[in-house]
Amino acid sequence: MLPYLFVLLAIAIRFLPFLGLNLPHAWHFTPLAASLLFFGARGARRQLWVPVVLLATADVVLTVFVYKYPFIWDTLVTWAWYAGILWLGTNLREKAGFWRVAAAAAASSVSFFIISNLAVWAAWPEMYPRTLAGLMGSYVAAIPFFRGTAASDLFFSLAMFSVPALQQALTGRLRSTGGPTAAV
Questions:
Q1: DSSP line for the chain
Q2: For 90, which of 40, 62, 105, 184 could close a Cys bridge (C-beta 3.0–4.6 Å)?
């Protein structure tokens, strides 16, 4: 259940600015990549498509109805990235230690930065000329957004992967002290 809750949290946070709440998506501080990593590691293998469909639906709603942008192929690149991060999360199924989770979070941030800005450069020639200088300009313009993305990917990944360990430790402690047992 926890993997689904984290994906729903990621989707809800994407809509907060449009509900009059200016936190935390405004600073590109979201649990999106972390929720995908966690779902890949802890979600049902047969249902790995669920987060992609949920996030893609949110993307369509935000792109077409909220931002009022045209829906073009660069969004498909983002959806492929969602699937890639889910796959990366499946590599954390057996071993999800601190350094492996931190490395996966860093890979999520860097890959999104590289792939999404390349797609924007290629799909929107009116924003950046289709030259090497234009491509570099798209990356330079994205650096301020990368800071929030990298910080949130690391923070939320470590937090999400800590929840089951904390839950297990708390349950074990309650059982050893004779206190009420928590439902696991």
A1: -HHHHHHHHHHHHHHGGGGT---SGGGT--SHHHHHHHHHHHS-GGGTHHHHHHHHHHHHIIIIIIS-----THHHHHHHHHHHHHHHHHTTSS---HHHHHHHHHHHHHHHHHHHHHHHHHH-TTTS-SSHHHHHHHHHHHHHHHHHHHHHHHHHHHHHHHHHHHHHHHHHHHHHHT-PPPP-
A2: 40
Q: For residue 12, which of 47, 53, 62, 48 has the smallest C-alpha distance?
A: 62
pLDDT, tens digit (0-9, with 9 covering 90-100), for 30-40: 999 999 999 99
CA distance 54 to 117: 23
Q: Is the peptide bond before 180 cis (omega within 30 degrees of 0)?
A: no
**Phi and psi at residue 84, in whole multiples of 5°?**
-65, -40
Whole-model pTM: value is 0.89
Q: What is the CA radius of gyration of the chain?
A: 18
* 107: exposed, middle or buried (Cβ count in 10 Å: 0-12, 13-18, 19+): middle
Q: Given the structure tokens 């989707």, which residue do they identify? A: 11
